[in-house]
Amino acid sequence: MQKGYFKINRVAGFVVVALCVAIAHGRAAENNPEFSAWIAGVKLEASERGISTGTLDQAFTDLEPIPRVIELDRQQPEFTQTFSRYLRAVVTDARVTNGRAMMQQHAKLLAFLEWEYGVPGRFLVAFWGLESNYGVLKGEFPVVGALATLSFDGRRGAMFRRELFDALTILDRRHITVGEMKGSWAGAMGHTQFMPSNFLAHAVDQDGNERIDLWNSVPDALGSAANYLRILDWKFGFTWGREIWLPDEFDIGLVSVETVPKENKLPLSRWAVLGVKQVGGHALPHADILASLVMPEGSEGPAFLVYDNYNVILEWNRSTFYAIAVGHLADRLVGAGQLSAPSSTDEPLTRAEAIGLQQGLIALGFLSDDADGIVGSRTRRAIRSFQSANSLVADGYADRSVAAAIVRTSGVDPNPEH
């Protein structure tokens, strides 16, 4: 009956709650009445979803937007770095050393998790290392405040609004307190940086204390990661992929330019016939598995054959750089060396340069999207089409030389603001 009352009188209820919030928050409401009214609507909807009044009062007391969260949302690293720079930053000698120490310290736990979920410990520790540097960098942003800021901002408002309600559900179930619920600027939480939706769907009480604590319990954090990867269909007994050597005169058109590689997925035996070898010149393994070819820095950089488990890593974080870094760190943790390909010292394209490249592709008819400065799969496909049409190496890679060629050929102004 009361639920129906809320539905019938939603507008009236919204106004009453907004007034209450304004009185309770005084100065915050005066400084940002739009945000305060928006919070009132969130509280009303959360109440209808069954979140308790006590949880809502604790979560939203003195809540205000966090400007730094918006700044960080506009500066995501893969779009402002080259692969070599990214890999040097996240797979460091210190992270390898500390990861090996974590594997020793938690050897029994990792062995049990591999038995229970089918995910090798080295991969769990690699995710842990990249996500929070083994718990050192779990994030200091209040999760409710960060998610409220991103939802109110509106760029991806619907997604972050859902995550906000999930965070409130976690609080309402008393897995963690409001004060302890800290995370990244995007609301990712704990040792393994789960978003609230993943927490509710996949997190497990691995230590058996009847609450799930990804912030303070390593068993809960790594058990939850293992459970999530199992659900994503991690293939037990197979690795993620490997760095490889390509023969001279190799058909670079076989390289995948999709973030999730779909093109030219071939059996390992077929890649072997094409002359692909393991680093050091050894033959590829005799395994019944399909593989795609990925070259994150174009034809002059390292080359990788990647398998189904690479795509599972991409389900965790849809980033080519991230997926290769997880796999490479997992290999380093069990004794593999650094990549054999030389590390590039090229400067990344600036956002303005990436926009100019895209404008050129649009003018030439190779790209139909807006020029947003983000070089994703569609832009890489367009670059490859331009390269093929102009007798260039068709690797789909956006470096300064191809950007300059596209701008020159299209005749667009590379600096329209000037």
List keywords for this structure.
418 residues; mainly alpha; 52% helix; globular
Structure description:
The protein contains 20 helices and eight strands. With 418 residues, it is mostly helical. The strands form two sheets. Strands 3, 4, 5, 6, 7 and 8 form a six-stranded mixed beta sheet that branches. Helix 16 crosses helix 17 (320-333). The protein starts with a helix and ends in an 8-residue tail after the last helix. The model is unreliable at 1-29 (pLDDT under 50).
Query: How would a textbook summarize the main sheet?
Result: 6 strands, mixed
Radius of gyration, whole Å: 24 Å
Principal-axes geometry comes out as globular
Between the first and last Cα atoms, what is the distance in angstroms?
63 Å
Instruction: List the secondary-structure elements in sequence, H or E.
Output: HHHHHHHHHHEHHEHHEEEHEEEHHHHH
Strand content: 5-15%
Low-confidence stretches: 1-29
- Helical proportion? 40-55%
Give me the number of helical elements: 20
- Summarize model confidence as the mean pLDDT: 90
Structural class: mainly alpha
Number of DSSP strands? 8
Task: Offer a concise description of the structure.
This protein is mostly helical and 418 residues long. It has helices at 2-8, 10-25, 27-31, 33-48, 53-60, 67-73, 83-90, 93-105, 107-117, 121-132, 143-153, 157-172, 196-202, 218-231, 268-273, 308-316, 320-333, 351-363, 377-389, 400-410; strands at 141-142, 182-183, 241-245, 255-256, 266-267, 277-278, 290-294, 303-306.
